[in-house]
Design a protein that fits this description.
2 helices, mainly beta, five-stranded antiparallel sheet, 313 residues
């Protein structure tokens, strides 16, 4: 295994254990229906189910970090087999069918690993994390957030994001609808966000939640999902939690999503689909601790939100 990939995977394991396109000329008047979206998979209920087995979730391969385009007609995700650096993969709908999944190389070999892609709410940009081969303690200088811009049916040359976000070890970036960019600062083990200033991110602000890594902001910024070590049972591994935005703009306590989402295995890298309907995450349930993608209805979050705020009244 490449040295950089080994260190990065070790770091991710530590977290687990310690814790459209350029706005299209003509906007589609109607997004693909449910049968066409999400690679034709039957939508899950409140209980999480494996996503697209044999298509996206491949036996023996680690999948982590997934994002859909605003029109739900494209998917990007990162994955790697043992002894490989992570890569970004892609599929999209053409002629009413999903194309075979293809591996991408946004940095054109400038970085050995690319992962955690996120398509912007306008579909005109992808944020992702890239790294080079590295050794401790210099690894913090290698892991950075990069971007590509939509150019018709392709993407621009990748560039490193010009922002204080990249002053530290930052990754797992994602945006709210207003363009504010959220990410995890691994150097400080905290979540931060950079307010959107006309497409630039000149300052960073601590989010202010108790703890949690691989945090993902909801489109309207009313909640954040994170993975964190189980607070109620120290013997369990990482679970998915949610924080709700209070009326005073502070955040609630961390609330475990419960057995419908979490299991005796570790869960990590949560994300919310652009339509707000589904929660995605990785579950380390294959032999050898290999993760697959799982998804569940965000109704599980809605139920917790209703119960939380009714209790607060």
């Amino acid at each position: 295994m490449k040295n950089g990939s080994f260190i990065l995977i070790c770091i991710c394991a530590l977290f687990l254990n310690a814790c459209n396109t350029k706005k299209q000329n003509t906007q589609k008047s109607d997004a693909p229906n449910t049968a066409e979206t999400y690679l034709g998979q039957k939508p899950p209920s409140l209980t999480a189910e494996i996503f697209a087995p044999g298509i996206i979730s491949i036996s023996g391969r680690s999948e982590h970090g997934i994002s859909f385009s605003p029109n739900l007609d494209e998917v990007y995700f990162s994955a790697n087999h043992k002894d490989e650096d992570p890569s970004i993969y892609h599929s999209k709908i053409e002629n009413n069918k999903w194309k075979p999944v293809q591996r991408l190389d946004f940095t054109e070999g400038k970085r050995v690993g690319e992962m955690h892609p996120f398509i912007s709410p306008k579909g005109d940009k992808i944020f992702f994390t890239a790294h080079n081969e590295f050794t401790l303690p210099e690894h913090k200088e290698s892991v950075k957030i990069w971007t590509v811009n939509r150019l018709g049916n392709s993407w621009s040359t990748a560039t490193q994001l010009d922002s204080p976000i990249n002053n530290g070890f930052g990754f797992y970036s994602n945006q709210a609808k207003n363009g504010d960019l959220y990410y995890t600062n691994v150097s400080k083990w905290k979540m931060y966000y950079a307010p959107n200033k006309n497409g630039k991110f000149p300052e960073i602000v601590e989010v202010g939640i108790e703890s949690g890594l691989h945090g993902f902001i909801s489109p309207t910024q009313d909640y954040i999902v994170v993975n964190s070590r189980n607070r109620e049972n120290a013997e369990r591994k990482s679970d998915i939690y949610v924080y709700f935005k209070e009326k005073d703009e502070s955040w609630s306590k961390a609330i475990n999503l419960g057995s419908e989402v979490n299991s005796n295995f570790g869960e990590t890298c949560p994300s919310i689909t652009p339509d707000g309907k589904y929660l995605f995450f990785s579950r380390y349930n294959e032999e050898g601790g290999v993760p697959n993608f799982y998804w569940a209805s965000t109704e599980v979050i809605s139920k917790l939100k209703k119960a939380y705020f009714n209790k607060e009244q």
